[in-house]
Fold this sequence. Notes:
The protein is an alpha/beta fold.
Amino acid sequence: MPRVLLLGGTTEASALARLLADGRVPAVFSYAGRTEAPIPQPLPMRTGGFGGVEGLADYLKSEGITQVIDATHPFAAGMSRNAVAACTQAGVPLLAVERRPWAEEPGDRWHHVADYQGAAALLPPERTSVFLAIGRQNVAAFAGLPHRFLLRFAEFDARQSVPLNAELIVERGPFDFDQELALLRAHDVRWMVTKNAGGSAARAKIDAARRLQVEVVMIDRPTLPPRETVETAAQAMEWLGHHADLGL
Ligand code: 3Y8
Ligand code: NAP
């Protein structure tokens, strides 16, 4: 009998959890524990790191995991790299669910950078209004800049300090176009910093930026080791069907 480990934390992971539960496939959903109250899933859940590659390889063996599906975010590079190494070591088949990067469209004003430091360096010298839509883990790179910052976090606890003077919105996506347009207008946003997350849940801000001619600093994805990849939860279920006698 198969037992699937689903590395989650994205809309695709939640969609796949639903398909696995509906198909009565034995599986466990894994969160890193970045947020206090993650979205509940229709599968047994585990939360927290595994303890690096060795910890994950041990987990695969001790829990009798027969397939791993990495549906983490394209910027969760550490988890994805560990999954490739641990699955190779443990001889467990691995599939990544990876959404296509957003592509520039006519009217977009994108500036590509490789990382947060590059994004901070690219902002104009004179004070302007900047929306940092990159979450709360990487805001420090923008400390000390003269801009009016707008931040958006999925969660926030008051004990946590924010290393720059900013307006803070605490909201978990997905977000829609009208909401993003209103947000950019209300704060007179001129620049936006975002990761190239891909997918639909975080894309509306990009479309709203195009409409309002906002300059977009696009942080390109980290490189990941080669691995078998699909783009959707449905394709992951097909892969599972071939890899395990699930009768799907
Ligand atoms: C803990 C689980 C689902 C998953 C929903 C997706 C969509 C909404 C858009 C903006 C961008 C950002 C951020 C974002 C989005 C989805 C998806 C996605 C971006 C939750 C979740 C966890 C996290 C972790 C969190 C990071 C942060 C990044 C906020 C749950 C809500 C900015 C990424 O507070 C923190 O420490 C948050 C950290 C990693 C990036 C960062 O560096 O701060 N995601 N996001 C997961 C875990 O513990 O394993 O709490 O419910 C999931 C989702 N966030 O089931 O529908 O599929 O991408 N998440 C980015 O894209 O830049 C917000 O504001 O426009
Ligand atoms: P990361 O930097 O790639 O991973 C750092 C460490 O966190 C990993 O080595 C692992 O610890 C642990 N970890 C990460 N994801 C895990 C998971 N799903 N289950 C168990 N442990 C996990 O990770 P991150 O970028 O902080 O992302 C953390 C979570 O947030 C992931 O679930 C990701 O899908 C979600 N998320 C991230 C972003 C983003 O912008 N980075 C956006 C949306 C959602 P050990 O080494 O101890 O095993």
